[in-house]
Design goal:
Shape of chain A: globular
CATH architecture of the largest domain in chain A: Orthogonal Bundle
CATH topology of the largest domain in chain A: Tetracycline Repressor, domain 2
Low-confidence stretches of chain A: none
Oligomer: homodimer
Radius of gyration of chain A: 20 Å
Chain lengths: ~200, ~200
DNA sequence: GTCTATATCGTGATAGAC
DNA sequence: GTCTATCACGATATAGAC
């Protein structure tokens, strides 16, 4: 099923894998070529340069990353439910893409890299989620909080656990399996903690 | 005051700065040499190789990182107060070392790098903080939670906000100054949220 | 200890045959 | 489109003069 991709697609798929797991400066064009079963000349033939290929991959990663949240925010569920669902969606999404948050956070911190196309983030704004929160403050249905802080709360508790897998394994001397069990449990912890904090009037549990 | 360091110290200081901000594969020996005002030959004269120098820097970073927590856990404050204090200490520490968590998390994910000396983490264990928590569960003074999940809660909410500075600035289109204000506010949010979650019987305000 | 010069290799990118 | 061969450069590391 994956065998009859075009050369261009094969290279792009390999680049995605290699870039995401090793970062821009952690890998070479040759490595990507080898991973795709092609050679360096072809990589540059289709994508002009390592940087150009990277931009494509990075933008794709940003899109996936943002969409996993936008899908939930665009739904017509009530606000509290949206928060629950976005955490669930993030944990589900990151279970299959655990390297994505580290990739995005790191590459955004490279000076050379990623004069970022902020259009991606506008998609979040355009779901109206922030307005919805503001309205909820005013009606006393939700704790008043700055939107940057809300974003931080959600992303910290969803993304960091996947970014710190190796650190956690070392600190607690646990296996991959044990860690994955902890992550599954963590989802519920995070949901309860955040919902209780953000919607304090409700009796949660 | 910093002018009359020995050559060795000057190189190590420059290496620390460069490695922490760009990562092992994001910089060259030449860059470190230049940043220290020395040349490549001297770097290798004192430290044998880029990798050896990196190990020194990484271990130093790990030590700083762990100590910022150990200091609090070793105190004789009551448990709830320790949790409060460790969050405060982390935010204070990271305000002056914002790049440290990303550095550690990233370099721990490099395959080549960091067959990590887990001794560092034993220092946390040896403070008895985990035993203290277990005792608190049994006496019903604290919510029962796996230690890996507790570590995740604290680290997620302390480290991620500093790791994601560039991402946050892009998402919310804010300046460094505004972001720093958000981080200061975030410390209090995190303290209240975590304490309320972990010690639910108390009335936290 | 400190420097210049150099050896050796890997990198990104391209030229040119097919 | 795809390949081999190659270029120009920067990387790590060291030799050897001072």
């Amino acid at each position: 099923m994956k065998k009859d991709l075009s050369t261009e697609e094969k290279i792009k798929a390999a680049a995605k894998e290699v870039f995401i797991s090793k970062g821009f400066s952690g890998c070479s064009t040759r490595e990507i070529a080898k991973a795709s079963g092609m050679n360096v000349a072809l990589v540059n033939y289709y994508f002009r340069s390592k940087s150009e290929l990277f931009k494509l991959v990075f933008h794709g990663a940003m899109e996936d990353f943002v969409n996993s949240m936008v899908n939930v925010f665009s739904s017509d569920a009530p606000l509290e439910q949206k928060i629950r669902l976005v955490i669930e969606a993030e944990y589900d999404f990151l279970s299959t893409h655990p390297e994505l948050p580290a990739f995005i956070v790191n590459e955004m911190s490279r000076e050379e890299g990623c004069q970022i196309d902020t259009t991606f983030f506008d998609k979040i704004l355009s779901t109206g989620i922030f307005d919805e929160c503001t309205k909820a403050f005013e009606e006393g249905r939700m704790r008043k909080i700055d939107m940057a802080n809300l974003t931080l709360l959600i992303m910290s508790n969803c993304d960091f656990p996947f970014m710190s897998k190796n650190l956690m394994k070392a600190v607690h001397k646990i296996s991959d399996e044990e860690l994955n069990e902890r992550l599954i449990a963590h989802k519920e912890i995070v949901i309860e903690m955040l919902i209780t904090y953000l919607f304090p009037q409700k009796t949660n549990k």
